[in-house]
Design a protein that fits this description.
Layout lengths: L14 H6 L7 E4 L3 E5 L9 E5 L11 H22 L3 E5 L15 E6 L19 H17 L15 H8 L21
Antiparallel strand pairs: 1-2, 2-3, 3-5, 4-5
This protein binds zinc ion (ZN).
């Protein structure tokens, strides 16, 4: 397990830490030793909840895996309950991790946003400005990510019975690359001589 990153120095002026410590008003709907869930004060729809860790971690990358997994478990437990109570049809889970991704409170949090058709909210995916990249570029990026994962010293062993497939092997098995045809009468190229 990777070394746990110490909580950020900005903890002292964090509004979510104030909620955790009971020094600010909050409408809490779930609480345990690790996680809290409370009503967002700027809800997209009624029942909009935030799930946060009790300890101060800024972004997704700062969260220890065990804490991240626990937050996800709390989230999945809350989803059907919130949907039922809010009378919502569906749910968006949104994490804005880092300033470029639109994070505005730097204490990691998961938005649970109940949704109904025509509620006026939108998560515009697929991105309207997107163009389908060349398949070779997608393949190359996938192989780079797969290779980096295998080189990652912090990687965890997959759960028993889970087989990890190398993306390069998958592509080799599924993509047929036509071999260049040899010209009639052409001599096969000899391998370069070693000096
Ligand atoms: Zn905090």
């Amino acid at each position: 397990m990777p070394a746990r990153k110490p909580p950020s120095q900005s903890k002292s002026n964090c509004i979510f830490c104030d909620l955790v410590q009971g020094s600010a008003e909050v409408s809490m709907c779930y609480e345990d030793d690790v996680a809290l869930a409370f009503m967002d004060i700027q809800p997209v729809n009624p029942g909009h909840v935030l799930v946060i860790p009790r300890d101060h971690y800024e972004t997704l990358q700062d969260i220890p895996r065990a804490v991240g997994w626990h937050l996800f478990q709390v989230t999945t437990r809350l989803i059907p309950v919130i949907q039922k109570i809010a009378g919502a049809e569906d749910m968006n889970l949104i994490v804005n991790s880092g300033p470029a991704a639109g994070q505005n409170v730097f204490h990691y949090h998961i938005h649970l946003i109940p949704r109904t058709k025509g509620d006026g909210f939108d998560v515009p995916l697929p991105f309207p400005g997107s163009e389908m990249p060349n398949r070779h570029l997608l393949d190359a990026m996938a192989v780079r990510i797969g290779s980096a994962l295998r080189m990652d010293p912090t990687r965890e062993t997959p759960a028993s019975g889970v087989r990890v497939v190398n993306p390069a092997d998958r592509m080799a098995a599924t993509v047929t690359v036509a071999a260049p045809k040899a010209k009639a009468g052409a001599k096969p190229k000899a391998p370069p001589k070693k000096r």
